[in-house]
Design a protein that fits this description.
Distance between the termini: 138 Å
Order of helices and strands: HHEEEEEEEEEEEEEEEEEEE
Radius of gyration: 34 Å
Number of helices: 2
Structural class: alpha+beta
Amino acid sequence: MAEMRNPKMNETTKANRPAGRGGFTLVEMLVSLGILLIFGLTAVAALSYGSHLLRSSHRRSYAYDTAAFVFQRIERDVAAARGHVWGPDEDSYDERIRFIVDEDANGRQRLRFVRVIRNIADDADDEENLMEVGYVLDDDRRLHRGQLRPLAEEPDDSVFAAENLSPIAENILHFEVRCWSQYTATWLLWVQDDDGNRIDLPFFPWPDPYTPETYNPPLLSWDSARTDNDFELYDPDSEADDLSNNIFPRAFKVVLVVEPTEEFPTGRTLQVRQEAADAIAVNGSLPAYNEQWPYIRINDEWIWFREFVPDERGGVFVGLQRGVRGTAQETHAAGDEVRFGSTFARAFYNPAAREHWGR
């Protein structure tokens, strides 16, 4: 017998069924938006970090290329450097040939020496085959190379005259020359004691050249004629026309600090928050730097620091030595920018080296 169904029961069952779902609930929408927001923020952070890495890479590449070009230019000049050779006849010496590292009116170091001109005609005399070259930094952070030919009859600063200068590099924060003398034992200018404090190395010529008595640093000035009273190897008996005791360094090291802020800004800055005599608090993140060169520059002052102590707003430079690298100590206001730059150093052997132990 066929089973009988109650039509009212079927209608009741259909009425109790839930209606079909036509969209998302509010909770589902909020969860979806939250996930999208997380992915979006992650993507923005990744793009920002990638952009920062790209700018940093460009800055490093620019700084490296700038330093490499300057060092190659100096190397070409030094390879042809001319000095005084030993000889019994003083008439064979040319008093126009010299090697000088001194300072300009603003206390910045200058380098100049005489070199031979290559690829010159075979019938040219020796006087026409010489020229003086010089390197100096200007107020606009441009490094210039000077060239003087023919040589001046009397030594002067003509090589640094505006008409003889040509810019070879920009964005140079610092140009430094360290000379290796017959008494020098290290390229270092300072060492740190057990507490991490900086101790500048003194220079003392040994009475006996074969018995070193001190760990002498390089010299930051040089006068091949030894007539400058401030030169460590000054000879009180030397005269400008007495060339028998002229000296030329064995080698010299050039230190360059390059900071291409204009072309490749990082978007990150370090600014002074508060200044004290032995500490400077700053706002911002500390950029990567070479710990062998713990220097910062604020305005026109170079500062050596022993340590950087981070805090919630940035950090504090402690263990300071103010007014280094030939600069004077200054007072800095809140908001002044703190600069590092990229430091490069290279030593150059001097083929025209000449020592004199008759001191």
